[in-house]
């Protein structure tokens, strides 16, 4: 798809991605609340701070799956796989650049020195979060950079919506 004009190949994948993005946002908000309660030594408004913190697992799964669906919406319908790095590499290079730039800009709010090399490293290291975290109970250890994957998800979504809106104005 490199060098071709942007197309939303799968509107359903885009819409389903929104559902997983929204679910991630709910889980993340509850998880952050639980973390704050634990740090402040509160029991939490539901007295379930530890359980709230454990929402990290479904938050990662939902966020990674939203990333996957948003990218698949911009790829031919027969595109398979869960690895984010592989899906990202199949996107049009212009779309890749927009997503990477938006993600780097967002990550610079967390770490000022964040750059393109960090983006590539984070994408590689978090590429298989959906599959790994879905089966976290089968592994001795898993890691995920939730700030990266969340910013990446928001960047993919923003670019897809912006490009779709631009195409709708042209037609």
Précis, in short:
This protein is mostly helical. It contains 8 helices and no strands.
Describe this structure in words.
The protein has 171 residues and is mostly helical. 67% of the residues lie in helices and 0% in strands. It has 8 helices and no strands. Helix 1 runs antiparallel to helix 8. The longest helix is centred in the first third of the chain and has 29 residues, at 11-39. It is globular and about 55 Å long. The two termini are 21 Å apart. The relative contact order is 0.16. Mean pLDDT is 86; it is low at 1-5.
Give the CA-CA distance, first to last residue: 21 Å
Helix fraction, binned, reads: 55-70%
Strand proportion, as a percent range, falls in under 5%
| Main sheet attributes: strand count, strand direction, barrel closure | none
> Helical region count?
8
Helix/strand class: mainly alpha
Q: If you compute it from the alpha carbons, what radius of gyration comes out, rounded to the nearest whole angstrom?
A: 17 Å
Quaternary structure type: single chain
Give the CA-based shape: globular
User: Regions with pLDDT < 50 over 5+ consecutive residues?
Assistant: 1-5
Q: Please, what is the average pLDDT?
A: 86
């Amino acid at each position: 798809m490199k060098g071709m004009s942007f197309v939303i190949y799968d509107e359903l994948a885009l819409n389903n991605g929104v559902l997983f993005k929204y679910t991630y946002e709910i889980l993340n908000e509850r998880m952050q609340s639980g973390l704050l309660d634990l740090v402040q030594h509160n029991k939490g408004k539901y007295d379930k701070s530890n359980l709230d913190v454990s929402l990290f697992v479904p938050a990662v799964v939902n966020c990674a799956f939203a990333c996957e669906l948003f990218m698949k919406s911009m790829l031919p319908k027969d595109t398979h796989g869960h690895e984010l790095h592989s899906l990202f590499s199949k996107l049009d290079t212009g779309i890749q650049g927009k997503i990477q730039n938006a993600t780097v800009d967002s990550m610079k709010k967390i770490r000022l020195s964040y750059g393109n090399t960090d983006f590539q490293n984070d994408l590689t290291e978090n590429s298989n979060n959906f599959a790994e975290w879905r089966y976290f109970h089968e592994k001795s250890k898993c890691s995920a950079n939730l700030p990266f994957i969340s910013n990446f998800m928001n960047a993919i979504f923003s670019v897809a919506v912006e490009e779709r809106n631009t195409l709708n104005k042209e037609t």
